[in-house]
């Protein structure tokens, strides 16, 4: 690990002590302070190889200090810490040139690893997009799952990389795509969204690429396609899994060559758009079924982003509910709040419709009930068509309420029963067999690798599979393998 001097700034003395000890043990020299003025003086004097600073300081906000540091010493890497943990915090850190953003609390090993990467990188200035001062937060939630999404989005803002967003219906895939555009380098261009599932199959190519007059029956004039409309901006292809094979072939050609022809046209048209795709289906299953091109999948899946369902981030429900109540209040409905019992009911609900279902419930509560405080009985009345999950024991997070004596078979059976009940009278999307195997396979291989401390030879022996098979599974499942030594 490279050595170096770290300038550490945090108003909390206890946090400074913990970070100082962890970084010193890793072999770094640390100078710490409780205010931004001292940090600025050290930087101005040419001290330090890296800066680690909290956002909120007693004498100055770090976001106001960062531009001055980057102007004076553009090559100096800066790691920003914050307990605010919002989407805009991550975006501002990226816009002001931070090397990395770490939401508190974080793993000390992660901080040490980030410092090592920052000090070993080439000393060039970090480019950033121009600052955005809009404080409207498009994404809400402070859970660990959403923090990872925020950090990934912050890294993607100054790039034009193609992004594939996966997640169940109602998780906010278009909101994420819109945030990528609104806070990215193409924000001055148009954002054009097209839903593949909402367009008749025979019209998708015309919708995307446009058509010439007389190209087919009913084409009485030239029509511009979505690629042309999105020129210089972002094209969001929602429900990409519903795109027919013929259109997939043409889209692949556009991604490979950067040009297309209209339906009925002959002259190639150059295109300059950023592609963001989204799906609620498992495209790997569609590939196996011959319904989706594997080469197109790899062209689109440059940066995969998985949005967690609401049941995996129940700690975000209070923030989301307050956010939606504020929105409906701005629209003219009366102010509402939830009591403790009502919030408990919301946290125990399965939310098959995810965030969209929660928003619709909040709107219904605000419009139909005259009470200022929504009680648990009202929530029960609204959600009586769906069984609630059992209450969580004190001190146990969601998903860990089952008895330790429950076997794997019983746990899987219970999970599947809850999963099917979430679709009410309908059935889950096709490809359930492969999805379930993939969900089980990932944790199993991850547990084996963790138990063997990242030793893939020993993990393969433990699992009873060939070493090459294990390597392929690790690659296909996009698992991160970290080799560690026993202490």
From TrEMBL:
Protein location: Cytoplasm
Gene Ontology MF terms in the entry: ATP binding; phosphorelay response regulator activity; sequence-specific DNA binding
Main location group: cytoplasm
InterPro entries per record: AAA+_ATPase, AAA_lid_NorR, CheY-like_superfamily, Homeodomain-like_sf, HTH_Fis, P-loop_NTPase, Sig_transdc_resp-reg_receiver, Sigma_54_int
A biological process term (GO) from this entry: regulation of nitrogen utilization
Limits of the Response regulatory domain: 5-119
A GO CC term attached to the entry: cytoplasm
Pfam family, one: HTH_8
Keywords: Activator, ATP-binding, Cytoplasm, DNA-binding, Nitrogen fixation, Nucleotide-binding, Phosphoprotein, Repressor, Transcription, Transcription regulation, Two-component regulatory system
Disordered, as annotated region: 385-408
Domain Sigma-54 factor interaction: 139-367
Residues recorded as bearing 4-aspartylphosphate in the entry: 54
Entry function: Member of the two-component regulatory system NtrB/NtrC, which controls expression of the nitrogen-regulated (ntr) genes in response to nitrogen limitation. Phosphorylated NtrC binds directly to DNA and stimulates the formation of open promoter-sigma54-RNA polymerase complexes.
Protein name in the entry: DNA-binding transcriptional regulator NtrC
Native source organism of the sequence: Microvirga vignae
Gene (name only): ntrC
